[in-house]
Amino acid sequence: MIKPRIIITMGDPSGIGPEVIFKGLNNPGIAKLAEFAVIGDRWAFNKAKSEKRKAKNFKFIDLNNVPRNNFKFGKVDARYGRASFEYLELAVKLIKEKKADCLVTAPVDKEAVNKAGIKFNGHTEYLAGKFNIKDFLMMLIVGKYYFTLVTRHVALKDVSKQLTQSNIFKTIIITNQSLKKIFNIKKPRICVCGLNPHASDGGIFGDEEKKVITPAIIQAKNKGCLVYGPIPADSAVKELVREKKYDVLVAMYHDQALIPLKILGYEQGVNFTCGLPFIRTTPLHGTAFDIAGKNKANPGSIIEAIKLAVETYCNASLQKQ
Asked: 6, exposed or middle or buried, with CB in 10 Å at 0-12, 13-18, 19+?
């Protein structure tokens, strides 16, 4: 079996990242899958340990960058935001130096990072920028349910402004290519959600469906994609989950995808970044400050993120042979 070299960034030291990483790497089904290196602060990481057995199947790269005085779990703090960003910076450096194959990122707190004076919209945008990737997207996965997003971390009032025929078309194309090449779905059935209630009901509730979404769908069909829509988002989710009509839903904005995904399996969900020159996955949950440091965090999502990183890396390696 091919064993990838996986870097795991600890995320915000005040969140559940340290706890779920330790629990995940302590899982007997994970230990032999890859060569693991965790980037973080060992002192903060050790504070979150919650199991008697010690996970020894990984290397720890200690940046020693979390202030010891008055450290507290569950706190939005610029110092912790800067620390989490420094883990990510080093991970990028190691990947560029070909010292790692995959990246699994524990959650950071965007507010804390920005409080540190670092402009940061999210891992996805940051990584794409560092590797000069223009065509990329978030693919959110729970089991065999796939969602992709046209817009990501954008205020709801700005979503409509960012929906263009070009952006929607690119999302459909990258979705189609990723499902075929990475997830081995030969002819993906792609459902494109409408933006407005009832997909605007023929223009009564908006005109985005007519002006930009439908033209993008027609353009993608002309490129050979099997695309349906625009379909009202509530109906699309039902048809995906209950009726198995589609392989993937293309959502127009963040919550359109994240709400059904978290209902389907919040603790098993994974975010996969399509378009990067390496494999990157992350849990579907955030820092969960409300339970951080209390030994209540479920490691299921980071376990699935690690498994998906290994699976997709191995598939890609086999295709190259």
From this structure: buried
